């Protein structure tokens, strides 16, 4: 990075590391680095500690693959899977944890989730085995008698549509009702960028696959 060559190595290395983060371009990385330089050692310790602890303190729910705290729960399940107040027979399938959070904010999902951790994208080398699809199919198979509905809330871009179709093809003979959120969501859109009102409408207007 040429424009960083007049900077001490510690600063230029920090800029390079920040530059690797999604949506952080070179200019933003420089601004963030100089912002951090002005912070107190205490604040920096807190930031560094939370970055270092993220792998030790967080794990995935063994049922739905949502994030959960590594310490707090006894049975490897997240708060939603553990909740008696949620309808455990309705499973809303999303690509990412951020999509789950966006849907939770609408307060329209009374059931539970399944986080795939991505969408099918053959061009990027993402096939079915790279996602939590087998886990979803097992979950439906094991709970087939009690599961009422699968809501496919993957994005409306081509990867999200391909993923929804793949799931439908695999589950259409399971006897479980399958629906797809659609109406109101911008075509080609990422779920977590949609506003709450749009997401709420999309969930309410879900249609049978
Ligand atoms: Zn869970």
Shape category: elongated
Enumerate the distinct ligands: zinc ion
Mean pLDDT: 89
SS field, number of helical segments: 8
> At CATH's second level, what is the architecture of the largest domain?
3-Layer(aba) Sandwich
Number of structural units classed as domains: 2
What Rg is obtained from the alpha carbons, in whole angstroms? 21 Å
Describe this structure in words.
Helix 1 packs across helix 2 and helix 5 (97-106) packs across helix 8 (196-204). It contains 8 helices and 7 strands, in the order H-H-H-E-E-H-E-H-E-H-E-H-E-H-E. Helix content is 42%, strand content 14%. The longest helix has 17 residues, at 41-57. The chain is elongated and about 65 Å long. Strand 3 (87-94), helix 5 (97-106) and strand 4 (111-115) form a beta-alpha-beta unit. The protein has 2 domains: 2-58, RecR Domain 1 (Helicase, Ruva Protein, domain 3), CATH 1.10.8.420; 78-208, Dna Topoisomerase Vi A Subunit, Chain: A, domain 2. The structure holds zinc ion (ZN). Zinc ion binds at residues 61, 63-64, 66, 77-78, 80-81.
